Amino acid sequence: MRIISGGIQHETNTFAEGTTTLAEFIRDSHCGDQLAGYETVVERYQGTGTIHGGYLAAAEAAGFTLVPVLNTRAYPSGMVEKETFDQLKQMLVSRIEAELPADGILLDLHGAMVTEEHEDAEAEIVRAVREAVPEDLPIVVTLDLHANISPALAQGATVIIGYDTYPHVDMRERGEEAAGLIARIVRGEVTPCQAYRQLPLLTMPPMQCTLREPMQAVVDDLHALESEPGMLTATIAMGFPFADIHDMGVTVLATSDGDPALAEQAVERLASRLWELREQLQPQLTTIEEAMEIAKAEQGLVIFADGSDNPGGGAPCDGTVALRALIDADFQGAVVGCLHDPETVEQASRAGEGATLQVQLGGKTDDRHGSPITTEVEVVRLSDGRFRFHGAMAQGLEDTLGSAALLRIGGVEVLVTTLRRQLIDRAMLETVDVDFSSCKLLVLKSAVHFRADIGPTATVILDGDTPGIHRPDFSCFDYHNVRRPVYPLDDLNRE
User: Fold this and answer.
1) Number of Cβ atoms within 10 Å of the Cβ of 43
2) CA end-to-end span of the chain
3) What are phi and psi of 293, to 5 degrees?
4) Would you tell me which of 348, 361, 376, 431 could form a disulfide with 383, CB atoms 3.0–4.6 Å apart?
């Protein structure tokens, strides 16, 4: 058995400045200027907590040959340039065609990519691949929990398997599931029947977290349903609310073994459960001023999730609102990270560790996340920013912050980086030897992912009330393209 795998991943924030180019895919994929597949993908992903890590592990366990032709991604940002998408899509399709005949296709996609031409880029990828391969060839697609799954995408794939967790600690498991399922399909052991339901429901990242209620219980229900006789898999996609497209929002899929009615019953059960929870799925936010008071009263670490400026959702990661409040309050024992500011990192690198210098820190991308802070800083530590994820999310994968500097302003330390990176793993803080022992308040440019590795160190976690293009507040965004009516943008009382 021979299975071809490929992937193009991007989470697109349509409210972000600028577009995403091929250079960004090359930079963030770590597969060379030609975006090499095959041995390059195997070397990078084998043994890691990623989708392709799962594909590779399952291929070995199930005894089939996996041929990874491409696996490219760019960090979340604005719409993908038309030329870039066309080039990547053609690269994927032509490499798949060159490896035919094959027994099946595995596609490692995100589900929330928007291009200058395509609202639903994943549906276009699946359409192009489907057109290039034999009609009966199974195509199994893995998607992020934040996927906006359109009817076209659901219809194009033989089966869709989404992440069950947020933070995404089950990527490897979902890759293994997808690869194991396609092997069973090819061997004729199962006949998948997939049902799809799109809810008139939008949710924001904080309450999509599966480590807290109500989503923890929803995932338990999902797993119980998957274990029932006749069921193969089920997926709840909570959607990415910062992509203003027609099919943005919550969707549910359920796949049975040869029983369409069973799949429809299962998908309706999951959809009804989520609709009942619609009010509970809306977040409550805390200001940085309130967070400082809580941190002073607590004995342990308080985390302030500055999700409005989360680069993992396309935000610039250079917002200064929380940092400025900490400085103005002369707060002692705070750490902020990561703050994206290549100019300041370069200044710090030239000055060297131990130096004191004047900087204009952050606020350089736009006026929606706070203005630059003119201040004196001490250069505590410099680093090349290279690290390996050791937490449950993406475990074992190598990455970089770019050149990094730990700066001190009074009682506040700031991790400043040359690349936009969501601070989700303690290994990222360890690049500059951040000491947690005296930290009272940790301000993270992250919405939820930090909870997997850093969250257990905290006594209190707060969802931050700050401005930005990833702010978990629907009233801050002017939606033009999402289908209507939809909750909570509209007052729906459907039971």
Assistant:
1) 10
2) 47
3) -65, -40
4) 431
On whether the CB atoms of residues 105 and 137 are closer than 8 A, the answer is yes
Which tens digit of pLDDT belongs to each residue from 14-51? 999 999 999 999 999 999 999 999 999 999 999 999 99
Distances (CA, A) of 18 to 15, 163, 198, 315, 362: 9, 29, 30, 11, 18
Torsional sign, CA 272, 285, 458, 297: negative
User: Which residue in 11, 488, 469, 489 sits closest to 237, CA to CA?
Assistant: 11
Q: What is the pLDDT of residue 438?
A: 83
Domain residue spans of the chain: 2-276, 288-471
Q: Model-level pTM?
A: 0.96
Q: Which two tokens stand for residue 459?
A: 């006594």
Beta strands per DSSP E along 199-271? 231-237, 251-257
What integer best gives the mean pLDDT of the chain?
Answer: 97
Quote the CA–CA distance of 399 and 409 in Å, as a whole number.
28
Residue 495 has pLDDT above 90, yes or no: no
Q: 387 to each of 403, 434, 485, how far by Cα in Å?
A: 12, 14, 45
- Cβ-proximal residues to 137 (8 Å cutoff; 6+ apart), any chain: 102, 103, 104, 105
- Average pLDDT value for residue range 163-176: 98
pLDDT at 493 over 90: no
CA distance 259 to 281: 32
Which class in CATH covers the domain with range 2-276? alpha beta
148 CB-near residues (< 8 Å, 6+ apart)? 111, 112, 120, 237, 239, 240, 243, 245, 247, 248, 249, 251
In angstroms, the CA 399 to CA 401 distance is 7
Element housing 442 (H / E): strand 441-444
Characterize the bridge pairing of strands 334-340 and 412-417.
parallel
C-alpha of 263 from chain center: 28
Cα separation of 347 and 359, whole Å? 8
Q: What angle do CA 274, 275, 280 make, to 5 degrees?
A: 75
